[in-house]
Design a protein that fits this description.
Elements lengths: L3 H20 L5 H11 L6 H10 L2 H16 L2 E5 L1 E4 L4 E2 L10 E2 L11 H9 L8 E4 L9 H14 L4 E4 L2 H10 L4 H11 L14 H7 L6 H13 L4 E7 L5 H18 L2 E8 L15 H14 L10 H4 L1 H7 L6 E4 L22 H9 L4 E5 L5 E4 L5
Helix pairs in contact: 1-4, 3-11, 3-12, 4-12, 5-6, 6-8, 7-8, 7-10
Length: 392
């Protein structure tokens, strides 16, 4: 059970922190006005979002974002038991920030898994209490819609209870165009095969000029948003992401968040928002210095404050590293993704601290509890499975 006394103390401390902000003579009036809006549950404008990046100090942002997250989640932090399948890192696209993919003409440097090999990965988890398989990879011209529908059907036949979350809008856009299907027709076909939700990858930054610099040849912002909106209409929940810390500025970040916020107003189909940090090893943008941990924490805190219709803000710990991910729990984050196992290479190949990204349930619970939060195992769509606490 939740320690209600501890939760009440946390909420009291959050209120006291906000009162200090409002009484602090060093804090400029526009920032105090933003704090008043947050306390009164009023939406921030894009201009106010930019101001938070420009003028918001870390203590101020932490107090506000932790207040909002605690009111929403009563000190709970979620995780799930999941594993990844990455069918291939061979890709027809050439995103400059990507350390993971190999061009098709150099496919011998990458990997390509068969359906049977991917099923063998699923079978490794037979008898284990995992609830989700996350399928995402490069855009391989020979891995088409029919190929992946067959894979999904075979996974469902083998383990019907496993939630299948798969395929970025980039992968789906290519598959549907190659199959000469509309977005709705393609998604319905995949849903009929057993696909249940979409991850948020491929969003990067929606601004056209920035997109032309970092990922000019793949689906654009309009296409990404249309795929996710169509999925929501088909009752398929999705996630949303933002790649930060490269060539974008604060206005680009807020514009990106605002487009997601507007779609969420319309459909309420996003499960969560996941800021993703640009890592600079082994890619064509290695000349760009990675942003600091302080900037990471600001991004998460401002995401919580600006994206008021996203209940869940996720820190993807294999990308940040577990120590920084733990810090984000004091800056509005309420989800650390999952146990992952050692099945994802996307960020380890880009220089993440987590070279073998795997945490046990006990590891995750300890990390969450040591930050003063309550660990809660969830399923993909945030139904609570089990509340963990060393005090139980």
């Amino acid at each position: 059970m939740i320690d209600q006394n501890n939760s009440n103390v946390t909420q009291l401390n959050n209120v006291e922190a906000l009162q200090e902000i409002l009484l602090n003579s060093r804090i400029e009036k526009p920032l105090k006005d933003i704090a008043e809006k947050i306390i009164n549950n009023k939406r921030l404008s894009q201009e106010e979002g930019i101001l938070l990046f420009e003028k918001g100090e870390l203590g101020y942002l932490g107090a506000l974002s932790n207040y909002v997250a605690t009111n929403l989640h009563n000190n709970k932090v979620y995780f799930n038991r999941n594993f990844h399948i990455e069918p291939t890192n061979v890709c027809i696209f050439t995103c400059n920030f990507c350390s993971y993919s190999r061009q098709y003409k150099h496919k011998d440097e990458g990997w390509e898994l068969s359906i049977e090999q991917m099923l063998d990965i699923v079978k490794k988890y037979d008898g284990q209490a995992v609830t989700e398989v996350h399928i995402v990879g490069g855009v391989h011209p020979k891995m088409n819609l029919e190929f992946f529908c067959e894979l999904i059907e075979k996974i469902k036949a083998h383990r019907p209870d496993l939630h299948i979350k798969g395929f970025t809008a980039v992968e789906l856009d290519y598959m549907f165009r190659k199959a000469n299907l509309t977005i709705e027709e393609g998604l319905q076909k995949m849903k009929n095969s057993g696909l249940q939700s979409l991850p948020g990858g491929g969003a990067e930054i929606f601004d056209t000029e920035i997109r032309n610099i970092i990922c000019a040849d793949k689906v654009d912002a309009k296409g990404w948003l249309q795929i996710h909106e169509t999925a929501h209409k088909l009752n398929m929940p999705t996630n949303a992401t933002m790649l930060y810390g490269h060539t974008e500025n604060y206005a680009h970040r807020i514009d990106h968040m605002n487009r997601l916020r507007e779609l969420q107003d319309k459909t309420n189909g996003f499960n969560c928002f996941i800021p993703l940090k640009f890592r600079n090893q082994n890619n064509d943008m290695s000349y760009i210095k990675e942003v600091s941990v302080i900037e990471d924490l600001k991004v998460y805190a401002i995401s919580r404050l600006f994206m008021d219709n996203f209940k869940n803000i996720k820190a993807y710990w294999p990308m940040l590293g577990r120590q920084t991910a733990q810090l984000t729990l004091a800056f509005g984050v309420n989800d650390l993704d999952g146990t992952i196992d050692d099945t994802t290479k996307i960020y380890s190949m880009a220089g993440s601290e987590e070279q073998i990204p795997s945490m046990s349930t006990e590891d995750l619970c300890n990390l969450i509890e040591n930050s003063g939060k309550i660990p809660v195992e969830r399923d993909t769509i945030y139904n609570e499975i089990k509340i963990y606490s060393s005090k139980n």
